[in-house]
Give the backbone structure.
Amino acid sequence: MNIVVQKYGGTSVGNIDRIQNVAKRIIKKKEENHKIVVVVSAMGDNTDKLLEMAYQISENPPKREIDMLISTGEQVSIALLSMALNSMGHQAISLTGSQVGIKTTGHHTKSRIADIDDSTIKKHLKEDKIVIVAGFQGANEESDITTLGRGGSDTSAVAIASKLQCPCEIYTDVDGIYSLDPRVYPNAKKLDVISYEEMLEMASLGAGIMHTRAIELGQKYHIPIIVASSMGEKPGTVIKESEKNMESAVITGLAIDNNDVMITLNHVPYSIRTTADIFDSLAKKDINIDMISQTSPQDNSVSISFTTPKSELSDTRDILAFLAKKYPQISYGINEDISKLSVVGIGMRSHSGVAAQIFVLLAKAGIEVQMVTTSEIKISYAIDSADQQKAVNLIADAFEL
Amino acid sequence: MNIVVQKYGGTSVGNIDRIQNVAKRIIKKKEENHKIVVVVSAMGDNTDKLLEMAYQISENPPKREIDMLISTGEQVSIALLSMALNSMGHQAISLTGSQVGIKTTGHHTKSRIADIDDSTIKKHLKEDKIVIVAGFQGANEESDITTLGRGGSDTSAVAIASKLQCPCEIYTDVDGIYSLDPRVYPNAKKLDVISYEEMLEMASLGAGIMHTRAIELGQKYHIPIIVASSMGEKPGTVIKESEKNMESAVITGLAIDNNDVMITLNHVPYSIRTTADIFDSLAKKDINIDMISQTSPQDNSVSISFTTPKSELSDTRDILAFLAKKYPQISYGINEDISKLSVVGIGMRSHSGVAAQIFVLLAKAGIEVQMVTTSEIKISYAIDSADQQKAVNLIADAFEL
C-alpha cells in the first residue's frame, strides 16, 4: 500500500472553511493513489479555552482530569473533518487515540507513546477509508485518556508513520523551516532540506514548528518528514538523514526561545549526592531541564544554574521550596527575563571557533552572556531578553542566515 | 453501601459557578454518609453548538461522526466537575460512557443501553471516590462511541441506579413535576408523587423534564426517581409505584407537545401487507411514530395519519418519497402546525367519560380535533397549534390541574 500520514495543526482546522479546505487537500492526495491516515489537532485556540475553564475552577487541577478535558478538542476536529470528507463523497472514519490503539506511558499531560496497535488503522485502510486520528492523545494501561504535551500531534503523526513505515507530511501555518524566525529577522531563508540532527536541535531549542520527540522518532525509524503550509502548494522543507558528501554551511539555523526561565541555586553543598538529589527531584516531577551550568567549587559549595520552561515554573517552585527546606544553606533566584539563542549546524563539526566568534560579536555590542552550553552541532547562549533583537541581527548578518 | 445516583442536567452545569455549586451539593450529600455516583450532561447549549458546526459542514453528516462529536460535551462537564470536587478536597474521578462500561446497541445517535459493567464504578466507590459519569453516551460492540438520544443522560443515570439498586435523583432547572407546563398555564400544581405509569405517559407525550426510557427503567427495576431543582432545597417530586389504596384524581396531568408533525397518507391500498410495509419502512430507520389513526376502507383504500417528531422529518420525508414511488396511487401531506394535548391519570381507569367530556369542551369552543388516540390512562388530542392555549385553559380549569 502506498500509504502517507498527513498531519494538520490547529490553525489549519481553525474553522469550518479551513476544515473543508483540508478535506479537499486530503482528497487530492487520495486521488494521486495514496492510502491516507490524517492526524489532526484541536481547532484553533480550543485547547486554551478548555484550559482556561479548568484554571477558573482550580489553580492546580488533577492532571488526569486535564487530559480528560483537553482531549475533547481533537475529538471535535476528527469528527468534523470526517464529516467534511464524507460529504464530499469519500469514505472516512474518525478514531480517538484510545480507539486507534495509541498506548502511552508516563505522567498525565506529558505522556509518551509506548506502542501503537496498527491493526485498526490497517483494517480501515484496506477498506479504502481515509482514517482520521485524533492527535496529541492516547490511553494508558488503566484505559485513562492521556495527552502527549503541547505539540504532541506531531509525535502522534510521526509515530503512526513509523509504525506504518511511510512518509509523514506535517501541514502547518508556515511554509517550511527557516534558518531563523522570520518574525524576528525578516530576511530569514527557507531551507529545502534539513537533517534530523539539526532539526532536533532547532526544535528542542524553541524554534517551534515541530515537536522534538516527533523528529527523534523520524530519525529512529528513518521516516522522511515534510513540513509545508496547509494553504498553498509550495514544496516546504524535508527533514531527513544528513547527506555525507554535502558541503554544509557552518550554521544552518538560529533558534530563539523566550519560553524558559533561568533558576540559580547558590551555596549548594559540593557533593555528587546533593547535585544528583536536586536534579532527581526535578526529574521525578517530569520537569524538563535544558541548559545546566555549574561554577567550580568555592568554600566547598557551588552555584548551579539551569533553564526550564515557563510552563513548568509552578511545579519547579514547589520543588525549589522543598529543596530549600531540605538544604537550609541553599538560596535560589529565578530570572524570568531571559532569552535563549542557539546556533545550529552540522558544519560546526568541521569548523571550530564558532563559539568564540559569537562571543566576540556579543561582547563588542555590550551584550552580557548569562550562560552558555554547547553540543557537537549547536551552541546556546542565554542573554537578557532586552538584548535579544540586537543579538539576533548580529548573528544572522554575520552567518548569512 | 449507602449509594445514591445523582444526575445534573445541562443548565445545572451551564457555567463554572454552577459547576462549583453542583460540587457543593454533591459534597453535602456525601457528608450525609452516602457513596455517590454523579451523571452529568453537557454544559448549557454546548451540544447545540457542536451540532451547528456539523450541519455547517454537511446536511446529513454520518451519525457515527455525530456521536463522536457531541459526546465531547459530556466529557468536558465530567472533567470540570471532577476538578471542582478535587479542589474542594474530595476525591473524585471522571469516566466517559465507554470507560464506565456502558454498552449500547442500536443505531448511532439513538442507541440503547444493553448492559453496564459496574465493576469500575464499584471499585472507585470502594476507594471512597465520588464517581462522575458522562451521561448520554456509551460504546457499542465495535468500541465506537454512541449516544442515547436527547435527554439520554436521564437514562444513563437510572440505568446505573438500576444496576447498583439504589435511588436516583434527577436535578434539573424545574423544582418537580407539574400537572402541566406552568409556562403555558401559570396556575399549574406541583405534584409530590406521581406513578411511573402516569409519568411515562406524560414524558412520552412531550411533557419534557424526563426521558421516557429512564422512567421505564425505573419502573422495571423498582428504582425511586426523585426530580428536583438543582438550585434550591425544595423536596421535588417522587416517581414511584402507584399506591393501590390511593384515591387518585381523575386526571393527574396534561402534557403539551409542539414537537410533532402529522403525516397523512391518502389512497393507501387496503391490505395488511401495505400497512405493515409502511410502518416497517419507518421502523427500519428508527423513526418514532406516536399517534396513528386509520380511516375505514373506502373503494378498497384507506387514509392513514400518524405523528412523528419534527427532528425526524428529514428522514421521514425520504421514506415517504420512497413509498410514494413504490405505491404510485398513494398521495401524502405533512402538517407541521399541530399541537398534541394529552390528559393522563390513573384515575381514568375507574372513571369513564373523560374523552367525551373533553370532546364536548373543545367542540363548544369551536376547536377542531384532528386525531385522537387513547390508552388505559391517557387520551391524546391533536389540534391546530393556534388553538393550543385556549384548549389548555379549558381542560386545566375543568379538571383543576
Q: What stands out?
A: The radius of gyration of chain B is 22 Å. The CA atoms of residues 361 and 394 of chain B lie 7 Å apart. The first strand of chain B starts at residue 3 and ends at 8. Residues 63-87 of chain B form the longest helix (25 residues).
